[in-house]
Specification:
The chain is α/β, with parallel strands linked by helices. Helix content is 36%, strand content 22%. The chain is built from 14 helices and 15 strands. The structure holds nicotinamide-adenine-dinucleotide (NAD).
C-alpha cells in the first residue's frame, strides 16, 4: 500500500489532529472522505483536505452504502460513539485508528475486541503518550533491563486549573451522564495504559481507588458570585474568569469557540459577545449544573507477580504536570514529562555514592523525524505508526492494538467501581 487513503469519521478536533499527517506528509496519508452530522465540521474538513462533495457523509451508514474509495478510517467521534460507529466499519472490512477512551463499559470493550478478531481487522487506539519520546525512551530503558524487574510504579498527573475548568467543569467531560466517561477514563486512561505498558511482564490482578469532587461544590462557591462571568462582580479577581482564560490568555479555543466553526474567523468582539451570551464556557465554574465528576482520584493497582502501581490524578493545579517514578530490583527511573527529562539511577556498590546516574533529555530527540506537536510529539507519531503498520504489517514497540488497550480500560472501570463501593475490585 502506498499513500494510505483515510476517511475521518467524526471530523472534529482530534481527527483533524491526526489528519495533520496528511498535510505535513502527503506521501504517507491522504484524507479522501468525511463523515460527520455537523455541517460545520464538513465545511472545515472539505477546505482543509480538498475532499469532494460526493465523499462527505452525515453518518457511517450513509458512508458504507457508497462504493468503497478508502483504505482505512480515523474515528474521532466522542467517547460514547466509538464502539457503535466502529462495529459497522469493521464488518465492512476497514482498519480503524480509534480515539481513546475507545469504550465506556466492559461490555463495549468485549464487543469491540470480539469484532476486531472476527473480522481480522487492525484497530489501533490513540494512546498517544506511548509515542511521546519521553515515555518511549523510558520504555526502552526498561526493555534494556536497566532497572531490573519492576517492583513499583508511581505516577501522578496534575491537571491545570484552566484545563480542569475548560474540559471537566464547563466543558464536554463535565458530566458522566452526558459524556459517559468518568474523569479517570477521559483523562487518565493514558496513564493507566502507560503503567501496564511499562509493567508488561505481568498482568493486573486487583484495584482499589478513592476520590471525589473537592473544589467545585456548592459549599465552596464564593458568596455573591453570579452564574456567568459576564454578570459577576467577583470576575476581575477570580482565577477561573472565562474572559481571562479564553480571551486574554487565549487558551482552549478548540473547545470554547466551536460555536464559530464553519463561519468567518471570530473577532475579539465576537468572542466577548459569545461569552456574554449563551456560550457554555462563559459560565461560573460553580454554576455548571450538570457537573458531576471527581476532581481528584487515587488508584492502586495490584499486579499478579506482586508488583504494585499507584496513580494520583489531581485537577486544579497551577500547571499540568505528569511525574513518574519506577522502582526496580536494580534501580529507579525518575522523570518529569513537562520538563521532558528523566534519570536512570542504578545500584552500584563499587561507586563512591553506591549508585550511578544516567540522564536523559527527550527534548533532544523530539524533532528527530520532524514530528513535534501535541502530547509531547505523540499525536503525529501515533498517526504515522498506524500508517506504517498498514503499509508494512510491522508494529512498533508502542503500538496500541485494541486487545492491549482493553486491559487498561478494564482497570479504569474496576477503579471506578472501587471508588463508588469502597471495595477492592478484581480485574
Ligand atoms: N488521545 C487524546 O489524548 C485525546 C485528547 C482529547 C480528546 N480525545 C478524545 O477524542 C474524541 C474526540 O474529541 P474531540 O475533542 O475531537 O471532539 P469533537 O467534538 O471536536 O469531534 C467529534 C466529532 O464527532 C462528530 N460526530 C457526532 N456524532 C457523530 C456520528 N454519529 N458519526 C460521525 N461523527 C459524529 C461531531 O459532530 C464532532 O465533529 C473523544 O473521544 C475524546 O475523549 C482524545
Amino acid at each position: 500500500m502506498n499513500c494510505v487513503k483515510v476517511v475521518l469519521v467524526g471530523a472534529g478536533d482530534r481527527a483533524r489532529t491526526y489528519a495533520q499527517l496528511a498535510l505535513e506528509h502527503p506521501d504517507k496519508m491522504e484524507v479522501v472522505g468525511l463523515v460527520d452530522p455537523r455541517p460545520e465540521a464538513i465545511i472545515v474538513g472539505k477546505k482543509l483536505y480538498n475532499v469532494p462533495d460526493e465523499h462527505c457523509f452525515s453518518s457511517v451508514e450513509e458512508f458504507l452504502k457508497y462504493p468503497r474509495f478508502a483504505d482505512a478510517v480515523i474515528n474521532g467521534t466522542m467517547d460514547n460513539l466509538h464502539v457503535q460507529t466502529t462495529l459497522p466499519l469493521l464488518d465492512a472490512g476497514y482498519d480503524v485508528l480509534l480515539e481513546k477512551p475507545f469504550a465506556i463499559s466492559d461490555e463495549e470493550v468485549d464487543a469491540l475486541c470480539e469484532s476486531a478478531k472476527r473480522n481480522k481487522r487492525f484497530v489501533m487506539i490513540c494512546h498517544v503518550l506511548r509515542y511521546a519520546p519521553f515515555y518511549n525512551l523510558i520504555k526502552r530503558q526498561i526493555l534494556a533491563g536497566k532497572i531490573g524487574e519492576i517492583i513499583n510504579i508511581q505516577m501522578s498527573e496534575e491537571v491545570s486549573y484552566h484545563h480542569m475548568a475548560a474540559s471537566y467543569v464547563r466543558g464536554k467531560w463535565s458530566s458522566e451522564k452526558l459524556c459517559f466517561a468518568p474523569m479517570l477514563l477521559a483523562k487518565c486512561c493514558h496513564d493507566v495504559d502507560l503503567m501496564i505498558w511499562f509493567n508488561s511482564d505481568t498482568v493486573a490482578k486487583s484495584v482499589a481507588s478513592f476520590g471525589s469532587n473537592f473544589q467545585f461544590t456548592p459549599e465552596r462557591r464564593p458568596a455573591g458570585s453570579a452564574d456567568r462571568c459576564a454578570d459577576c462582580k467577583l470576575e476581575p479577581d477570580c482565577i477561573f474568569s472565562a474572559f481571562k482564560h479564553y480571551i486574554e490568555r487565549g487558551t482552549w479555543g478548540q473547545y470554547v469557540w466551536t460555536c464559530f466553526d464553519g463561519k468567518d474567523e471570530p473577532t475579539r468582539e465576537d468572542k466577548i459577545n459569545s461569552l456574554k451570551g449563551d456560550n457554555q464556557y462563559g459560565r461560573c465554574v460553580w454554576a455548571c449544573k450538570e457537573h458531576d465528576i471527581v476532581d481528584h482520584q487515587s488508584v492502586i493497582v495490584n499486579f499478579a507477580n506482586g508488583s504494585t502501581g499507584t496513580l494520583n490524578m489531581v485537577g486544579g493545579a497551577s500547571e499540568g504536570v505528569r511525574d513518574i517514578r519506577i522502582v526496580g530490583t536494580k534501580g529507579e527511573i525518575i522523570g518529569n514529562f513537562k520538563k521532558q527529562k528523566f534519570v536512570v539511577q542504578t545500584i552500584d556498590p563499587d561507586d563512591e555514592k553506591m549508585f550511578k546516574t544516567e540522564e536523559f533529555d527527550a527534548n533532544e530527540t523530539s524533532d528527530i523525524d520532524g514530528m513535534t506537536g501535541g502530547h509531547g510529539g505523540g499525536d503525529l507519531r501515533l498517526a504515522a505508526d498506524f500508517i506504517d503498520y498498514l503499509q508494512t504489517g510491522k508494529s512498533s514497540i508502542a503500538c496500541t492494538e485494541v486487545n492491549v488497550s482493553a486491559i487498561g480500560h478494564k482497570i479504569v472501570f474496576a477503579a471506578e467501581r472501587s471508588r463508588k463501593t469502597g471495595e477492592v475490585v478484581d480485574i
